[in-house]
């Protein structure tokens, strides 16, 4: 019993130590990556062809190939600019050769802001569209 209590105390102390390090690292998510800024952009023409096609479908309102396309993206990672709940929606970018959804996504904001992730939300690049007034 005493051994179990010592283990629990050690576990608690270690956990609090890790939590304090993470909490004291402003601007970093749990995987230690900095938040995106305006300099982390990708021109729409540099997106993979499947991402460009997904962006067209988003702007048209569909139809989308995956049942989970269009669900709320909660931004739990905190990498995108903070917004009210239900502001962001996520859409799958197909990956050739995969039989499942893969890691690539476009996250769309209600104001017409679009974000691309190739690594399932570990990093984002804001999609920069042509300078004809679009984002």
Distance between the termini: 62 Å
CATH superfamily membership of the largest domain, which one? Microbial ribonucleases
Shape descriptor reads: globular
Helix vs. strand class:
alpha+beta
Mean pLDDT: 80
Low-pLDDT residue spans? 16-32
Biggest sheet strand order reads 1-6-5-4-3-2
Structurally, how many domains make up the residues?
2
CATH architecture descriptor text of the largest domain: Roll
Using the coordinates above, name the CATH class of the largest domain.
Alpha Beta
Q: Strand content of the residues, in percent? A: 15-25%
Total DSSP E strands: 6
Largest sheet: 6 strands, mixed
* Secondary-structure element pattern, one letter each: HEHEEEEE
CATH topology of the largest domain: Nuclear Transport Factor 2, Chain: A
Helix content percent band: 25-40%
What features would you describe in this structure?
The longest helix is centred in the first third of the chain and has 22 residues, at 2-23. Strands 1-6-5-4-3-2 form a 6-stranded mixed sheet, with helices on one face. The chain contains 2 helices and 6 strands, in the order H-E-H-E-E-E-E-E. The chain is an alpha+beta fold and 135 residues long. It folds into 2 domains: 1-27; 33-128, Microbial ribonucleases (Nuclear Transport Factor 2, Chain: A, Roll), CATH 3.10.450. The termini are far apart. A hairpin with a 4-residue loop joins strand 4 and strand 5 (114-117). It is 25% helix and 18% strand.
Short summary:
The chain is an alpha+beta fold and 135 residues long. The protein has helices at 2-23, 49-60, and strands spanning 41-43, 71-73, 88-92, 105-109, 114-117, 125-128. A hairpin with a 7-residue loop joins strand 5 (114-117) and strand 6 (125-128).
């Amino acid at each position: 019993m005493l051994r179990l209590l010592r283990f629990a105390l050690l576990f608690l102390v270690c956990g609090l130590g890790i939590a304090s390090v993470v909490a004291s690292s402003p601007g970093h998510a749990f995987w230690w990556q900095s938040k995106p800024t305006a300099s982390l952009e990708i021109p729409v023409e540099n997106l993979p062809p499947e991402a460009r096609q997904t962006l067209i479908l988003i702007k048209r309102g569909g139809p989308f190939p995956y049942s989970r396309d269009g669900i709320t993206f909660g931004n739990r990672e905190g990498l995108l600019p903070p917004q009210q709940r239900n502001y962001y929606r996520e859409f799958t970018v197909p990956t050739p050769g995969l039989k499942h959804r893969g890691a690539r996504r476009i996250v769309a904001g209600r104001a017409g802001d679009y974000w691309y992730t190739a690594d399932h939300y570990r990093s984002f690049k804001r999609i920069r569209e042509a300078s004809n007034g679009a984002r």
